[in-house]
Design brief:
Helices cover about 0% and strands about 45% of the residues. By secondary structure, it is an all-beta fold. The protein has a five-stranded mixed sheet, with no helix packed on it. The chain has a three-stranded antiparallel sheet with strand order 5-8-9, with no helix packed on it. A hairpin with a 4-residue loop joins strand 8 and strand 9.
Amino acid sequence: IEESLHSGSFSIDANTGMLKNNAELDREALDPKDNGRINFNVIATDKGTHSLSGSVSVVIVVEDLDQTAEFNRISFSIIDGSFGSFIVRTSADEEGYMGNIMVDPDIELDYETDRKKFMLRVEAADLEQEKATVTVEVNVLDVNDERPEFKSGPAVSVKENTTISEAVGRFVAEDKDTNHSLVYELESVKCRCSGKLTTCEWFTIDPSGDVRVNPAHTVDYEECDQAVIAAQVVDLYTEKGENNSVIPGQKLMLTDIFC
């Protein structure tokens, strides 16, 4: 065998020409550009007085379990930790195959539940079922998607002819989202006059939810003895879903207007 890059990996019987490899051949140890091909020359020499020789080029193709397209195919799967919330899809990549993890299209993750972190065990397997696993940590981030809700509160009372500027009542709402900004809006004010509820303007609402007597009007017990105030609350930071309270909004009843 003429000396070359791979000549040391083979031996030849000097008399019979039988060629053998000296050790296990590894396609991964070869230059990928050669596609598993090993080239060297074998020289045959006679024993004449004036020795003559001839040579032949030998090409050996090392078959593969990994580099060729048939055996390089890898599939990915989630074997633990998904709880039915994630899927992985295998796609071809320039350097091999890639596993794309995504939320199952039939599932919607909810930050407000107890499960805010997933530890996925992802397995890669080739056609020979050689496998490797990796752990992928998925953290669920909070998105402002919850509708604010009113908390029930007691009825309040107010004296007639009052000129106080302090709040006479207050709407209170809550939002499950971590980041929110609640603003209260007046829907209507109705006063019970002679036993019937009619629209009036005796009260106003601050964006903070405080209810105040409208300074432009006089609360008169002899005219009306009760008022019902309806409001809604809006979350200015809502990114997804409804940003306001369920309509109709919460009602605050001024059960008594004192003389």
